[in-house]
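Hello,

Our lab assistant flagged a job as stuck in the queue for most of the afternoon. It eventually completed. Since we weren't sure the result was trustworthy after the delay, we are filing this so someone can double-check. Below is the sequence as submitted and the structure that was eventually returned. Let us know if re-running is recommended.
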Amino acid sequence: MPVPTWLKVLNGEVVACTRCPRLVEYRERIAREKRRAYRDHEYWGKPVPGFGDPHARVLVLGLAPGAHGSNRTGRPFTGDASGNFMYPVLHETGFASQPTATARDDGQVLTNLFITAAARCAPPDNKPLPEELANCAPFLDREIEGLKELRVVVALGRIGFEAYLNYLKRKGLIASKREYEFRHGAEYAMPDGLVLLATYHPSNQNTNTGKLTRPMFVKIFEQARRLAERGRGGETSPLNDLPYFGYLSFVIVTST
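-- returned structure --
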């Protein structure tokens, strides 16, 4: 099945974006200098578009590309420690075709799940500025609007959580974020009909210290799967009964 036109166009605009001079300078410098372990790799060095199934019922919303992960490989959570923690869990819970993610052409396929981020460029110290997140927000808005079958948003970390709440504020669906507290395992029925699940981000800092363990993360995606099988009207539609709409990679259209 072809990638929808809206997603091709959006991916092309993401990859061509130069709205944030600080991020452009950083991502390109990292791509030139490289980490010693990746000296022979050709870094992506551009904004990273979302990845996954355009018929997804589950949206995974992270922070930003890693300097030597997604900024190197060009695909979310691919080629870094966070992805090494997350993809085995996605595979175990039935969303990913394989437990590893190393490159855009590694054969990884996501089904019923789409991965994106609040910021599309690798930021210095992994900390995008508020104005940089605001510049990326229209891309997130269009992804959420285009993913017509969404039922669940899994927010990885506080920034991913805030990014989704800010989307709802821009849409006029919530007036304040105060009633939505970020904590691991928090679950909220949102006014747009989706369910928001919060989890600690699978960063080295969280996974190496035991703040986020594999069983904790598995439970999040098992719950996401259960919620995704529920229709917005309460009917049940098991994910295994859906057509297989995984995609090996994203498709980009750019203007010449």
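-- support follow-up --
The delay was a queue issue, not a problem with the job. The result is valid. Residues 241-256 have pLDDT under 50 and may be disordered. The chain has eight helices and six strands.
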